[in-house]
Amino acid sequence: MKPEIYEVIVIGMGVTGFAAGMYAGRLGLKTLVIGEFEGGTINYAHDVENYPGFDSISGANLAAKIEKHAKEYDIKILKARVEKVEKRGNCFFVTTDSKVLQTSTIIFATGSEWRKLEVQGSKEFEGRGVTYCALCDGPLFKGKTVAVVGGSDSAAKEALLLTEYAKKVFIIYRRDKIHPEPATLKQVEEKVKKGKIEIINNTNIIEIKGKNKLESLKLDKPYKKKPELKVDGLFVAIGQIPQSLLAKNLNVRLNDRGEIMINKKSETSVDGIFAAGDVTDMPFKQAVIGVSGGVVASHTAYEYIRKTRVCE
Fold first, then answer.
1. With the C-alpha atoms ordered 148, 151, 154, 156, is the resulting torsion angle positive or negative?
2. Which of 101, 252, 271, 294 is deepest in the core (most CB within 10 A)?
3. Partners of 154 in the beta sheet?
């Protein structure tokens, strides 16, 4: 059976992937967007307030709008897991769990996944108090005490969302002070004044303890003269891991964090392979950056196809 042939295959169905697919379709390229689920991690964002054109919009709603826009163009969508990508001559072959596809160019928009907290008890209590998504699991902790570990803007936003459910939210961070965006920090400070949030700086969690469910966190320094902090839930927000294994297997150059290295045209170290969004070494991880990168990648792929013999 001959493989389906495309000019561009975008791997990833987040906002970056659909933006890349939309623009490739707009440029008249035979395009496929492939991935396991639509929307990506922004689906779990409660309020997005830094995407131009929207004062405030949920992550899921923003992702749905970008997907809808992409589908207005003549592109194909395939919900499937990509198991392997190979280069043969000037062609790329994408193997899924159900078929083999052929393309002239690849755009990696595979994003990232949540980084796990590597301490004793973390794995054992996943789903029993340890979680990675306040939007998903916050309602389970109504009237309870929870903690967020991390000091980024994402961690601060998780804490803010949790104040809508929990009676008290701790932010535990290993450095001197948390570092969210100024607007987010202002909201956190207001919650601190009201006693809804308390920040514990210069502190690490060294063990997660409990019986059938999480009951307390063992810290590397005492909190109010006690070695453990009693909480009902722990939300982990310590960064993300780029999903770059498929690119690595193609000998695409990665940095020491495992991110795909790109130039300002979204080109990688391998001809015909482009990348955008959180999987790349762009230092500012935001939806608007990923979307713009996806558009740049598609335009560069278009230029590449015009100058290079199309895979046949």
1. positive
2. 294
3. none
Q: State the Cα–Cα distance between residues 105 and 96, nearest whole angstrom.
A: 16
Q: Give CATH for domain 4-114+240-307.
A: 3.50.50.60
Q: What is the CATH number of domain 130-236?
A: 3.50.50.60
> Low-confidence residues of the chain, pLDDT below 70?
1, 309, 312
Using one digit for the tens of pLDDT, what is the confidence trace for 191-236? 999 999 999 999 999 999 999 999 999 999 999 999 999 999 999 9
C-alpha span between 166 and 164 (Å, rounded): 6
pLDDT digits (tens, 9 = 90+) for 24-57: 999 999 999 999 988 888 887 777 888 999 988 9
Fold: same for 4-114+240-307 and 130-236:
yes
pTM: 0.84
Residue 272 identity? G
Length of the chain: 312
Gap between the Cα atoms of 37 and 237, Å rounded:
22
Spans of all domains in the chain: 4-114+240-307, 130-236
